[in-house]
Amino acid sequence: MGMLKILFPISDFLYILQLEEYETKRYFKTIKRIFWRRNIQKRGKLVWTKRTKITFWIALPFCIIFPVIPLWIGIANFVLTPHFENIKANIQKRAADYFKEKNKKTKVIAIAGSFGKTTTKNYIYDLVKYNYKTQMIPGNINTPTGIANWVLINFDPTSELLIVEVDTYFIGEIRRSLRITPPDIAILTNIGDQHLERLVNKKNLTKALNEVFTCAKSDAIKIKNKKSNLEYALEVAKLLDIPKDIVNDTTKNLQKPDRRGDTKIINGFEVVDESYNISETTAKLGVDNALRIAESKQKKLIVITAGIPELGEENKNGNKNLGEYLVKNVEKIVLLKSILYKEVLNSSKKFILANNLDEAWETLKDYKAKEYLVLLQPELNDLYY
């Protein structure tokens, strides 16, 4: 079976396609770099979705006759893309029509931003749920089709509030989401430096994120320029007349969502887990926050990182800047050997290299856990190794 996967690596290249979210152009760009690699499913596994299965069966005969497997998978995906885009558009339209028909009294709160969306969403939910019948689209369901599917299956027309998180890889994506659930309250947490490889420049990113305002209802309340996720949530609580005693009690017990700066114990170490996503801005903010926690506990800080992906021309030095920032501020840096690591690495003796996250923890077993706090940044997916 192992030899078959090496000689006929169709699942590996389907996995690459899936990680690139079925974007043909990005897929072909990636396979130029890893054309000859095999058994790449180390940090994740291929999920056999309907689209993956259809791509497999279309590509399979050509792969057998003329076994240039990456090429045929890319071509099959290219051919199938209009079909699946049409399916997604139909799902989104059905959801928009359904929400418009069923929604008689539900106010929508929509949250966009480079980072902090999920934390803000959860904080708002915790503050308002005692006074309003509230639904929150869970987790990181924040694309037009994801939101559409959730609405069609889960929306309760008796809800008084619906809290929606919207994300974007391109101009117009938030517009598609908000056609389904046009907001009465629109929030823009910030405009940072994420996804600039996809969006090309900060100007496009700004335009894409501001769709949360331009595509809101004409009388929507628009909230921006707050200093923290909590401030956004408190502003919404104020607008919705949440009693002060509930606000005060709830605020004391707010918890960050998993992997967004929450604290946990891993391998005996106290860890600040920032492993969900990363940009230069969030990386530095995470370090600053972890340093404050470490200082309060009289501990030294170790950072585990693999670098920052999806840098554009405007922030191309992000990994170099991250390396310099870490050397200046922390005790040790365990640097995972992703394809980005050389950009982060410099001559400092603070760096320890590791091939993967398991090896990173292995390198720390000689350190006394009670003396150190660990900041865990994203390991990144298999495309970056």
Describe this structure in words.
- By secondary structure, the chain is of the alpha/beta class.
- It has 3 domains: 83 residues, no CATH class; 149 residues, Mur-like, catalytic domain (UDP-N-acetylmuramoyl-L-alanine:D-glutamate ligase, 3-Layer(aba) Sandwich), CATH 3.40.1190; 123 residues, Mur ligase, C-terminal domain (Protein-Tyrosine Phosphatase, Chain A).
- It contains 17 helices and 11 strands.
- Helix 5 crosses helix 7, helix 6 runs parallel beside helix 12 and helix 14 packs parallel to helix 15.
- The longest helix has 34 residues.
- 39% of the residues are buried.
* Assembly state: single chain
Spans with pLDDT under 50 lasting ≥5 residues? none
Radius of gyration: 23 Å
Strand order of the largest sheet: 6-7-11-8-9-10
Principal-axis shape? globular
Classify the beta-strand content into a percent band. 5-15%
Largest sheet: 6 strands, mixed
**The CATH architecture of the largest domain:** 3-Layer(aba) Sandwich
Q: Give me the CATH superfamily of the largest domain.
A: Mur-like, catalytic domain
Helical fraction equals 40-55%
Structural class: alpha/beta
- The CATH class of the largest domain is identified as Alpha Beta
Count of distinct strands: 11
Quote the average pLDDT. 96
CATH overall fold name of the largest domain: UDP-N-acetylmuramoyl-L-alanine:D-glutamate ligase
* Domain module count: 3
